[in-house]
Amino acid sequence: MQFQQAPPAPGNQYEDDRVLRAYLSRVLPKDVLRDVEESLTELGRLSGAELYEFQLADRLNEPTLTQWDAWGNRIDKVELTPLWRLAERIAAEHGVVATAYEQRHGSLSRVHQCALAYLFTPSTDIYSCPLAMTDGAARTLLDSGNQKLIDRAVPHLITRNPNEFWTAGQWMTELTGGSDVGLSETVAKQDPGDSTSFRLYGRKWFTSAVSSQIALTLARPEGNPPGGRGLALFYLETRDEHGRLNNIEINRLKDKLGTRKVPTAELNLNGTPAELVKESTDGVRNIAPLLNITRLWNGISAVALMRRGLALAEDYAQKRTAFGAPLSEKPLHLDTLAGLQAEAEAAFHLAFYVAELTGRSETGEISDEDAQLLRLLTPVMKLTTGKQAVSVASEVLESFGGAGYVEDTGLPVLLRDAQVMPIWEGTTNVLALDTLRALRGGDSLKQLQLLITSCVENVSAPNLADAARVVRSSFDHATTWLAEAERAGQHAVEAGARRFSLTLGRTVELALLIRQAQWSKEKESDDRSTASARRFAHSAIDLIWTGFQD
Ligand code: MFK
Q1: Is the pTM of this model over 0.70?
Q2: How many CB atoms lie within 10 A of CB 331?
Q3: Per-residue pLDDT for 112 more than 90?
């Protein structure tokens, strides 16, 4: 018989996920856990079975743009791939956005919704992008108090009925830049006699998921000053009642390294009707709720991709034999996977902790102190998990040897898609600067210290004590560095911002992982998180370097 290799296959992605299940057992009251488990088990099953099979079958399909019909009419029609069309229906029916707004379990509904997103994401080729923006748009509109727009759009954004479901775009980036959004050149001309209706004229350079029914975007009302303060936040609908684009031209779809199913477009706005969401200034500040929700999704997606890679690698290790034994019995292979598990597990706890804080903020149950912590941890979480997703995906591919480098295994897409995590929604450096912005004028570092202290102060297991010491020492080093850098001047603070933010991120990840490990040891007699915490503690947690003094 000729040798035939069995391919890797994910099982039920909820039932097999020790980390997710133990976390939910810790943070959810028993009755809430019982109530949500059915939805998680079902989506976990779909994600590991039909959706995964469909994803492999859909591998070569990409969205297409048809700009002209046979008779010379400009139509700019975007066709999505079959996987994305299915994903839209499943996302609506399973409440992958809606769950956060139904709030059946108060603030914990955000945790439930993020668990759904985490299970759904890896089998749907970044359909999480339009869902993230939809969620962010719903939050932003609700926070805006603009009742007309809330009544018009929010029911569509948070429905479970796929026939009523709308997704939202987030159109920010222009040719002038994706980071320095204040340079945006799109102009908003007010309709005569109506203070909230405008027409937008400009060119948007990187608009993700152009297939959405609505978008939130930034434009500068005529006469406004330059910079982010002179921009205003607008709501627009992409098509009119006849299904024609609302004075929008789609110039082309981007040819990207990854996220190939996402129809990311370059657009011209040629007098697109748009409504002011809030005041006619301060667009950057007013779009921030959207950014913070999409950054949460970014973190959840980063940990979801890491989890999928590990699920496949662990399954494959049982099936692949080399040098006389399955890889799952090879000490070096196991050691390598354990390192990846530690990274993924640590990242998981930070992303879901930000989900907990976000939920409390949305239900108004958050204290001022925790609101400051949420503001600080959102960029810290996004930048830390984004970097981890890329390094874990790269190692996952390597754990398959040559098969990980071959397209029709469906594995290389993990790395290509992971690479977007540190780029969009703010690069690592932009978010490191946002971390500094979040520290300004508040007490959030103190709140972070209280959090990590509460995580490690009750550690009783001797084999977690060393890890707890790493938490304390790296946090102390980060805060000492910041004080010294501030004395040295703004240049020093800015130059070290990435190392500082990543140190905070990895330190708080370790602290949260220790808390979970202690709980699992006591309540489940399970030492696997302890093993991950110990291993993570021996990775590079403290990345501070004090070279600015040279
Ligand atoms: C898988 C799931 C992922 C979902 C993907 C969705 C795909 C979408 C694709 C994209 O659209 S990617 C493009 C996303 N673009 C960005 O993320 C922008 C990156 N750049 C930044 O974040 C810059 O830091 C920023 C544009 C905000 C800088 O602009 P400014 O004008 O220099 O900001 P400034 O003056 O510092 O802040 C203006 C106000 O906003 C301030 O408040 P005040 O007016 O009260 O002083 C800030 O405090 C506030 N602000 C800024 N960032 C904030 C924030 N408030 C809360 N949270 C934040 N994150």
Answers
A1: yes
A2: 7
A3: yes
